C-alpha cells in the first residue's frame, strides 16, 4: 500500500511539474488592445486594429477572446483612434468565428468606423454560411444618396434592412472617418442606424419577427472587409466585380459586435470616445 501511495505521489509531482513547464513555455500573446468587457458580457467581438507588430495576425486580433484571424493581408493605416486597416480589392481579414455572437444574438449591435471616398458596391463585413446567408453589410449608391443595406437570414426568415433614396444616410462618402452603428432590438423587431452618434430618422422594421435566431453551426467564418461569396482566381485575374463578393476598399476601424441592442447613450459614448 505504501508503495502504491509513493508511486502515486511521484506521478502527481511529475504531472504538476510537467504542467508548470508547459505554462512557462507557452509563448506570450503580445500586447493588443483589451476592452473592459469580459468574455461573458454583451461585447462578443472587438477588433481595434491597433497592433503595431510585424505580425499582421496580431495586429487584427479580437480583444474579447484573443481570437486571431487566419489571414490578414490588409495594410495598417491611421485610424480614428490609433491604427486602422486599409481595405483592398480582393482582400479581407478572415476569422474562423465571431466568437459566440451568432449563438447569443437575439438582439444585436454592429458598430465600427469607416472612411470612404470611391463609389462602389462593397462590403464592410459578412458571415458566410452553408445556409445561404446569415448576415452581411454592403454600401453602394452615390455621394449625394448613399445606400446602406444590412441583410440578415436566420432559422425562420430573411430581411433586408435598407437606408436609401429619401431615407439615405447622407455625408458618408466624403473620405472622412464616420461612426456607424446598426442596432436591432428583438423586443420591437426594429433596427436603428446611428451615424456619428445620432440616430437616423428612418427606422427599419422586421414586422413581428422578434429575436433573431442565427444558425451558428452553419456559419463558416467572419469576414471583415468582404462579401459572403468568394472570387475564383480566374475571376480575380480577369478583374471581376460582383456585388456578393466585392471587398471594402476604404478604411475600417474599431469593429464591434454586441449581442444586445445598445442604447442611444452607449452609441454616443462610442462616437465621442472614438471607440
From TrEMBL:
Keyword Signal tagged: yes
Signal peptide: 1-19
Pfam families: Laminin_G_3
A GO molecular-function annotation: carbohydrate binding
Annotated keywords: Lectin, Signal
Organism: Niabella drilacis (strain DSM 25811 / CCM 8410 / CCUG 62505 / LMG 26954 / E90)
Protein's GO biological process: carbohydrate metabolic process
PROSITE patterns associated with the record: PROKAR_LIPOPROTEIN
Name of the protein: Concanavalin A-like lectin/glucanases superfamily protein
Domain of life of the native organism: Bacteria
Ranges annotated as spanning the membrane: none
Amino acid at each position: 500500500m505504501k508503495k502504491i501511495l509513493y508511486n502515486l505521489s511521484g506521478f502527481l509531482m511529475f504531472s504538476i511539474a510537467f504542467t508548470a513547464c508547459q505554462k512557462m513555455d507557452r509563448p506570450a500573446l503580445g500586447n493588443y488592445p483589451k476592452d473592459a468587457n469580459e468574455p461573458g458580457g454583451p461585447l462578443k467581438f472587438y477588433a481595434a486594429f491597433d497592433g503595431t507588430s510585424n505580425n499582421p495576425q496580431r495586429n487584427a486580433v479580437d480583444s474579447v477572446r484573443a481570437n486571431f484571424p487566419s489571414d490578414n493581408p490588409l495594410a495598417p493605416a491611421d485610424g480614428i483612434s490609433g491604427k486602422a486597416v486599409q481595405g483592398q480589392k480582393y482582400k479581407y481579414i478572415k476569422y474562423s468565428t465571431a466568437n459566440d455572437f451568432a449563438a447569443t444574438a437575439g438582439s444585436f449591435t454592429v458598430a465600427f468606423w469607416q472612411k470612404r471616398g470611391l463609389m462602389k458596391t462593397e462590403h464592410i463585413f459578412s458571415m458566410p454560411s452553408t445556409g445561404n446567408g446569415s448576415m452581411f453589410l454592403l454600401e453602394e449608391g452615390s455621394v449625394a444618396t448613399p445606400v446602406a443595406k444590412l441583410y440578415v437570414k436566420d432559422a425562420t426568415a430573411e430581411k433586408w434592412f435598407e437606408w436609401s433614396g429619401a431615407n439615405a444616410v447622407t455625408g458618408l462618402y466624403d473620405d472622412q472617418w464616420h461612426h456607424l452603428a446598426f442596432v436591432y432590438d428583438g423586443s420591437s423587431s426594429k433596427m436603428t442606424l446611428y451615424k456619428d452618434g445620432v440616430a437616423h430618422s428612418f427606422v427599419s422594421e422586421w414586422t413581428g419577427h422578434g429575436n433573431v435566431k442565427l444558425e451558428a453551426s452553419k456559419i463558416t467564418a467572419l469576414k471583415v472587409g468582404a462579401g459572403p461569396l468568394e472570387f475564383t482566381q480566374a475571376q480575380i485575374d480577369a478583374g471581376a466585380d460582383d456585388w456578393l463578393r466585392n471587398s471594402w476598399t476604404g478604411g475600417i476601424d474599431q469593429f464591434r459586435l454586441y449581442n444586445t441592442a445598445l442604447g442611444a447613450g452607449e452609441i454616443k459614448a462610442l462616437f465621442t470616445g472614438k471607440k
